[in-house]
Write a sequence for this structure.
């Protein structure tokens, strides 16, 4: 039997709030008057969220212009190292050396993260817990492929490690919704929670006064 929580209404509301936050962040970026040169680069991120899929690794390409950065990549699950979905990430730099910050090696940004999983598997910890606590389990969880949509928005910091290299970290609040969760599991197919991530980014071309 599924574990139904009393905050189902709040869960549904979260999936309306997150897109609005994403729209707000995108709008803020489009309002910039002075457009500097555009840059492209690569980045790799590792994240853990409330969906129970374990650690997600995401190599991606990004496009940066002004304070706005858009990245698109493929989501891999660490425990199986298989392609499970796609991830879209938007960032807006709030504070850096170009905005008058006196700390040259530190930047503050806001971000919105959207991930669609088309063949995700439950993480090892969730599978083990399900097998221990659910004596009536008749589903082979290793063979289950889930479809899910995750949406998060939050804040993070970037640390300048070199001319074009930066280490970024972030924490966000949001939720997930699994569309085809099998019946008879204690695992919640919808929920709210945190996303925590870390990663490295590399910008191609001349660095200049970058804030990506």
């Amino acid at each position: 039997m599924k574990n139904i929580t009393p905050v189902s209404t709040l869960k549904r509301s979260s999936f309306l709030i997150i897109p609005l936050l994403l729209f707000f962040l995108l709008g803020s970026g489009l309002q910039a008057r002075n457009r500097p040169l555009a840059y492209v680069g690569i980045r790799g991120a590792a994240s853990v969220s409330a969906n129970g899929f374990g650690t997600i690794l995401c190599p991606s390409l990004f496009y940066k212009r002004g304070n706005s950065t858009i990245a698109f990549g493929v989501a891999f699950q660490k425990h199986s190292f298989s392609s499970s979905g796609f991830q879209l990430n938007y960032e807006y730099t709030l504070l850096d050396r170009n905005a008058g910050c006196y700390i040259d090696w530190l930047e503050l940004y806001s971000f919105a993260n959207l991930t669609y999983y088309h063949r995700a598997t439950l993480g090892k910890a969730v599978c083990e817990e399900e097998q221990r606590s659910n004596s009536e389990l008749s589903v082979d969880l290793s063979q289950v492929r889930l479809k899910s949509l995750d949406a998060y928005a939050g804040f993070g910091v970037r640390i300048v490690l070199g001319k074009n290299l930066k280490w970024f970290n972030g924490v966000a609040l949001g939720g997930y919704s699994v569309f085809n969760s099998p019946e008879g599991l204690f695992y919640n197919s919808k929920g709210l929670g945190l996303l925590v991530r870390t990663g490295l980014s590399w910008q191609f071309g001349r660095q200049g006064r970058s804030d990506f």
Observations:
- The chain has a mean pLDDT of 82.
